[in-house]
Amino acid sequence: MKNVILYDTTLRDGSQAEGINYSLSDKIRIAEKLAEFGIHYIEGGWPGSNPKDAQFFEIMAKKSLGNCHIVAFGSTRRSGIRAARDKNLNDIINSKVKFATIFGKTWLLHIKNVLKVSPEENLEMIADSISFLVKKGLKVFYDAEHFFDAYKDNPEYTLKCLKTAQQAGASYLVLCDTNGGTLPDQISEAIKQVKKNITIPLGIHCHNDAGVAVANSLAAIQAGCSMCQGTINGYGERCGNADLIPIISNLKLKLGINCISDEQLAKATEVSHFVSEVSNMRHANNQPYVGDSAFAHKGGVHINAVMKDSRSYEHIPPEAVGNKRRILISELGGKSSIIILAKELNLDLTKDDPKTKKLHNLLQKLEMKGYHFEAAEASFELILKKALSKVHQMFKLESFRVVVNKETNKKATTEAIIKLRVKGKLEHTAADGDGPVNALDNALRKALMNFYPKLAEMHLSDFKVRVLDEKEGTAARVRVLIQSQDEKDSWNTIGVSENIIEASWQALSDSFEYKLLKDNEKKKSQPK
Fold first, then answer.
1. Are 327 and 373 in contact (CB under 8 A)?
2. Is residue 234 left, alpha or beta, with left meaning phi > 0 and alpha meaning psi from -120 to 50?
3. Among 285, 300, 443, 520, whose CB has the most other CB atoms within 10 angstroms?
4. What is the mean predicted confidence (pLDDT) over 17-22?
């Protein structure tokens, strides 16, 4: 069974994605999480490019990551100087890493039009840079930038670049599909030809501009590459890099390659969500293996079949990657979806139970009004438990009022005034906010915090509004979806009304109530 080395470049290539900007703390947290996940090499960035990366390497040099190693990134030396005088290469040495990745040009288009050097000098730059780092005691991975475009253009010179890097002492030659436009069969064929000319191990580094970065990476491994580079969730410039999450899952579960342990693979969903959260990026629901929808079932036929034999509509057990099966609540699922959800919540419902029929009728009526519970399972769980008398009311709204004041040439201000009954007491509070929903959130939080201090752990992470009846114009009914999260979980709630503030209140109050319910149930389950 072949071994595959996993090389993550989330902290460098991934940080080049639009919308991502890692702090020093973010980089350290992600690196530690990736090490736990079983990644063998983590590319930390350019040591001399900015103070943050320099500090990262300084801190990580003092940390133990087990079998994981931090790698410094850089380029071949500049034209016209020796490697020993190149600041970039010396910064790599000063970072105290044991492993370095440097990229160099292999495509004559870049050599002539971008670097503006001769092909011969480019070869000298590759050889001088690698040999300099090797003599300083580093192991060097050479990234052959634009390799596949270069190979299509001039295979003879491209192979000469690889041979030069090999002779200079590189430990790995990494073949890069930098523009992301190569297809799997072209990847495989090129690698087969390279293996006839190169004796040291090969790696693959793919971008996703043609939507096949994961497929290209797997094809490269099957063709003989033993190192795979990529990023968590496929983050990266333009269309992103190869996503290591499905790559690792496919290697383990489809190709039988034990690149990480079963226990580490079971953390795949956790790692994927952790990196998206730290990156301040929405996690893709439809992401293979680890997305919230990866094992979600909505149609009644699918639900019925998967509960009899999960293999009927699931290609792997979701637990293998730390995910879970989800039965989506909708009128398409019939009574079966309600019964299954109740069972997951340890609630006893049968198909012939009058409560089941009542809940099914309620679900259909609410969906007719615009409720969409497959995207708001927390709200439906509250409905279900209230219908079965499994939850007591944590607070009761008496009234709320939202005041928006706008003066010419001044920013609008918003205040929410709220009256609640909490544990038999009347709470009357007011709070300002950036807008009506934020003001309501602040006022509700202010009213409840003295009674339920654990609410400090939660915050709203997403807010969506959709108009349901476009023809009604400003009088249209709207659907509000709110995503909330605490330190361990995230949940979605919903509200529907012709009044956007009323719809927002429904979703907001459900969000708070669900957090309180969750904490209360956890407290009851703990041994006394």
1. no
2. left
3. 443
4. 93
Residue 121 to residue 126: CA distance in whole angstroms = 9
Strands 413-422 and 396-405: antiparallel
pLDDT tens digit sequence for 290-311? 998 898 877 666 666 776 777 8
Pairing of strands 413-422, 425-433: antiparallel
Quickly tell me which residue has 């890097």 as its tokens: 165
If residue 355 lies in a helix (H) or strand (E), which one and from where to where?
A: helix 354-369
pLDDT at 1: 45
Cβ-based neighbours of 62, under 8 Å, separated by 6 or more: none
> Which residues lie closer than 8 Å to 272 by C-beta, 6 or more apart?
232, 233, 245, 283, 287, 290
Residue 528 C-alpha from the chain's centroid: 37
Q: What percent of the chain has pLDDT over 90?
A: 66
> Which amino acid is residue 32, in one-letter code?
E
Hey, what amino acid is at 182?
A: T
Q: Quote the strand ranges of 133-253, DSSP E.
A: 139-145, 172-177, 202-206, 227-230
Tokens representing 509 are 């109050």
How many CB atoms neighbour CB 353 within 10 A? 16
Q: Which amino acid is at 411?
A: K
Cβ 14 vs Cβ 43: under 8 Å: no
Tokens of 87: 């600041």
H/E element, 417: strand 413-422
Query: Can you list the domains of the chain with their CATH numbers?
Result: 5-254 (3.20.20.70), 361-387+454-528 (3.30.160.340), 395-451 (3.30.160.740)
In this prediction, residues 271-285 reach a mean pLDDT of 89
